[in-house]
């Protein structure tokens, strides 16, 4: 599959000279050593207006970014897991208000952190069960150990839930272990980025009767033609995998992070619906076109248009944005003027964040600075791939929006 430019940009409202600013701007990140390399794709009305690569997928090996480079997409796995869940919802297999303990009994009697320390936490019973919609919206009270912003995060790390799960645990064991840890808050009372989508992946397994990787392959990846998307990279394709980098704390220069990066080269013990996939620009382009087209691509329909529109509305209580419904913590997005739907961040008002976009645009990103968005109003999609962890290092996503929307002139 290819992500080559398919139309003259000016035929679909883009100024080619302004689109060229994208490469000039992001090229500076590579030239000064902050990034090793990147790949960017911008489309409108289903046509590719801009597609470019720059720099190296593996700087130490001198290997360039190419059209078929494999990227760890981390949390860009979450929208795919959310689609999987909503496919089962469309089959009537569950309702969004159903308690997840109906299928995952380990979550029947969860408790909520109240006060105390990692060594001596005090908890209270949950007054509301975790419901399916809580997992889809990150309002479950589950968190991430690596966030390091709360006592509960510390309890996660002590139990082996940091960037991964305890050694050898599969998804069923991981879900059972997470259910033994206290929630950060009462379900539905706040928003916090965490392992909700991993638990959602386990829910998909139990409801469907298939392992998550099998469900993905049979029901989503193969039907959409996403044949390069996988959970790990075998030896024949290992050279296509971009190296993972992190900023040097003193210089800001990108330095290899093989301790984390090499995990993508081995079959995992668990299939992380929250962050486990490796993909290509061509494959994820197909996923964004499926989203833009309302749940269908090339004659294959996985979701109804109304379902996708429902998923990309703001589901936070009282129509609030993340800034007013989120304790301090890590997130793959700015918070002001941004709501959250069933698996996606949703733009409510672009002005508070001071970043151009359309009301109703939906998106997400990954830990290694990858990102995508879908703008149904302008019929624009955009993809950014690089491998710098964490994603908060540089404002790559907001800068890409700034450059894309300033190139749109019709």
From TrEMBL:
Residue ranges of domain Beta-lactamase-related in the record: 22-397
Keyword field contains Phosphoprotein: no
InterPro entries: Beta-lactam-related, Beta-lactam/transpept-like, Diverse_Enzym_Activities
Molecular function per GO: hydrolase activity
EC number: 3.1.1.103
Enzyme class, spelled out: hydrolase
Keyword 4Fe-4S: no
Protein name: Serine hydrolase domain-containing protein
Lineage: Bacteria, Bacillati, Actinomycetota, Actinomycetes, Micromonosporales
